[in-house]
Amino acid sequence: MEAESLDGRLVRYTAEIVALSGRMPSGQVAQEVATGLLQAVMGLLPRYHAACEMDSDRAFSRKLRQCRRMLRDTRVWLSVIEESGLLPHERIQGIQGDTAAMEAIFSRIIHEIERRLV
User: Fold this and answer.
1) The domain spanning residue 78 has which CATH number?
2) Structural domain that includes position 64
3) Among the four 17, 86, 100, 106, which has the fewest Cβ within 10 Å?
4) The total number of structural domains that make up the chain
5) CA proximity to 71, closest of 33, 25, 104
6) pTM
């Protein structure tokens, strides 16, 4: 996958999470969960950009691992939203699929880089 297309996908993904958090109920607990979700995803795009500027494969891989960790955290918050019924399954189903797909992309890239490092 080209860096440009991955970058665009990350921008759209982040925007979807931002929009989803805006649809959360206004209660205190729901807003705390929305904050956790936003915190999990907001550094994703800047970290990806930082990874692209790394001067070694090892540093690049390390930054991508941070991105993947953020996606895992996002997945956890999405699961909390679903299990608690804060938003209907239909509202988060697509973004859950996108999260899994993004995790798989980052895992594949990390695996390819680390295979070259051995």
Assistant:
1) 1.20.1440.60
2) 3-117
3) 100
4) 1
5) 104
6) 0.90
Helices (H), the chain: 3-22, 28-42, 44-52, 57-84, 89-117
Q: Tokens for 101?
A: 């797909």
pLDDT tens, position by position, for the chain (118 residues)? 445 589 999 999 999 999 999 999 999 999 999 999 999 999 999 999 999 999 999 999 999 999 999 999 999 999 999 999 999 999 999 999 999 999 999 999 999 999 988 7
* 7 touches 48 (CB < 8 A): yes
60 vs 116: CA distance, rounded Å: 13
CA distance 54 to 12: 23
The helix/strand/coil state of 68 is helix
